[in-house]
Design goal:
- The chain is α/β, with parallel strands linked by helices.
- The protein has one domain.
- It has twelve helices and six strands.
- The strands form two sheets. It has a four-stranded mixed β-sheet. A two-stranded parallel sheet has the order 4-5.
- The relative contact order is 0.15.
Length: 367
């Protein structure tokens, strides 16, 4: 037997299977994209089409990689790995995207919302992972911003899932483990009688949702607490890496105007604002309510202790003494518009090969 021909046949079959698998993933992503575009809201009409158009304005890349075995969808904004630094602005779909279209629909809405938040909010470009800036939002305010990002994304996800529920009953049951389930969202909409108040009610409900579904030692651990712990890990790791490179930073806080503008932009990612139409409700302008006791499944220290230690390492001794974001930008001859534009004008190189979205050298929100 001609071994050369056997190898050639094996290679062709290998490559053919990989291509077919990628095509299946692409088909799944395309199907849920069509579902999104076709959605109609009883109050706002063709919201799906408007959502799709608004998302297109973010210039967010959508890519597929079957090698990402445990990923359904993840939005990555910044990357600070040497040689690949810049604004990634990408949703990557992995193997889990193929398994359940209802879950993929939820994930695509959620991650698309993150891309829209990034486009809308100047403060989100003061990220510890943004290699282009040395002006960083301090850890405490960054935790608050990420809490609001997840709050808004889960709220908009629940809204869109509720619009699909009549046609796809599976999305009702699959939403049961989310911070805001479809039945809960529909109950809120019936209670308030209008979409804007429903979205605010859903944003409030997010803050009360338990992270773990079983009864145990951490019944009081919420989805918001998981955000706090994740941000603290990412911020701490990034600062260790970037400071070893000799980079120095100006840490800033969000003054009242900066804070209101940031939360308004995040909540207004698409549709009615999750944090209040007309004026942002005071409860959504508060700082994060960190746990004072540790979740030992995550870390041996509490989120509050971890924040205190991170601040000490960064030389932040008094939050109120930090300069405000807009003041520092003005002092350096920058505008809010130029600060955010710099990210979009300096994208990261297209990632290939071994550049995985789960790398700690990214700012990632996986699903």
């Amino acid at each position: 037997m001609d071994q050369g021909k056997v190898k050639s046949s094996v290679r062709l079959e290998f490559e053919g299977y990989a291509a077919a698998h990628k095509e299946m993933l692409a088909k799944a992503v395309d199907i849920v994209g069509k579902w999104i575009t076709g959605l109609k809201d009883p109050e706002l009409g063709d919201v799906g089409e408007a959502f799709t158009e608004h998302f297109a304005e973010t210039e967010c890349r959508q890519e597929i990689d079957p090698r990402e075995t445990y990923l359904r969808a993840g939005y990555t904004s910044f990357r600070y790995k040497k040689g690949e630094e810049g604004f990634i602005n990408r949703i990557l779909y992995g193997m889990k995207a193929e398994s359940d279209l209802d879950a993929l629909f939820s994930a695509r809405v959620h991650e698309s919302t993150h891309a829209m938040q990034k486009k809308a909010s100047v403060a989100l470009h003061g990220s510890y992972a943004n290699p282009r800036t040395r002006i960083l939002i301090c850890p405490e305010d960054w935790i608050m911003l990420q809490e609001r990002c997840e709050q808004d994304a889960f709220t908009k996800q629940a809204w869109f899932c509720s619009l699909l529920a009549d046609d796809l009953k599976e999305i009702v049951s699959s939403s049961s483990g989310e911070p805001i389930s479809v039945p809960d969202f529909l109950a809120l909409r019936k209670k308030y009688g209008n979409l804007p108040e429903t979205l605010v009610g859903a944003a409030r409900a997010y803050m009360d949702k338990r992270f773990y579904t079983d009864d145990g030692d951490y019944d009081d651990y919420k989805f918001a607490n998981a955000v706090h712990d994740s941000v603290l890990s990412g911020y701490n790791f990034a600062m260790d890496v970037r400071r070893k490179r000799g980079e120095s930073f100006t840490f800033v806080r969000l003054g009242p105007k900066d804070r209101e503008a940031a939360v308004r932009a995040i909540g207004g990612s698409f549709g009615p604002n999750s944090f209040g139409e007309g004026r942002i409700l005071p409860e959504f302008l508060e700082g994060p309510h960190l746990r004072q006791t540790p979740n030992k499944l995550v870390d041996s220290k509490s989120a509050q202790t971890r924040l205190d230690e991170l601040n000490k390492k960064l030389g932040i001794t008094d939050y109120n003494a930090l300069p405000e974001l807009s003041d520092v930008l003005a002092e350096r001859g920058m505008t809010l518009e130029s600060f955010i534009a710099d990210s979009y004008e300096n994208p990261s190189p297209v990632l290939t090969g071994g550049s995985q979205p789960s790398s700690a050298l990214n700012e990632l929100t996986p699903r």
